[in-house]
């Protein structure tokens, strides 16, 4: 008699775990590939003192609770539309140190965002977020622009430091910051009902003149066709943003190469190995 398929898969997973590592991979490694202890540790370190995580429950300082992992299997579309908190770690973000990469299909580390979590971090409305918005002088000697981002987690100061370093770089690099696309604006992501991270003042678009965006390069007659990857932003600049807690939209299959957003938890999770 043939065993139940799910039981066979479990038996195979146990055998592979023993052969590959010499130990069983229990609940520390989720079936979706997320290293649970490392992901929880990264989130707690990224946003210290705001919440605790015990078992499958994240509890905010005001007593609000959220489910860490609801146990639901999600395809790529569902991961974007209705992720739990654990799902945000589904893909490991590749840093600039890994060099030029072409993202695999639907590989979008950072595009998966639990909106309720971000609303707790930054605010649930434009008015709430707006209370913490600050002006940052961006490349004040070269471009003389002012952009707006949140003061929460010192994001405004972080962006200011990036501006100072970028402005001091050779012209072939600093020119990529001369036409910034902006920071804070309360809006949904184009074509969706999901809030952009720009809504929270935690994202910045570095240059509209050197931007490549997946939606503009998709096959309009056959949307399921593989999207060709394009990028003109140097990795030296990406590395500068990463040092200050930002990830880059150029590491996504659905890429947005001028886009940077503050996601220290993904960089910490990457560093954990």
TrEMBL record:
Q: Which SUPFAM superfamilies match?
A: Hedgehog/DD-peptidase (SSF55166)
- List the Gene Ontology MF annotations in alphabetical order: peptidase activity
Q: Which Gene3D superfamilies would you find in this protein's record?
A: 3.30.1380.10
The protein's matches in Pfam families, at most eight in alphabetical order, are given as: Peptidase_M15_4 (PF13539)
Where do the Peptidase M15C domain residues begin and end? 191-262
Q: Per its UniProt entry, which superkingdom is the organism in?
A: Bacteria
> Where are its TM segments located?
none
- Coiled-coil annotated spans: none
**Which InterPro entries does the record match to this protein?**
Peptidase_M15C, Zn_M74/Hedgehog-like
Protein name, as recorded: M15 family metallopeptidase
Species for this entry: Mesorhizobium neociceri
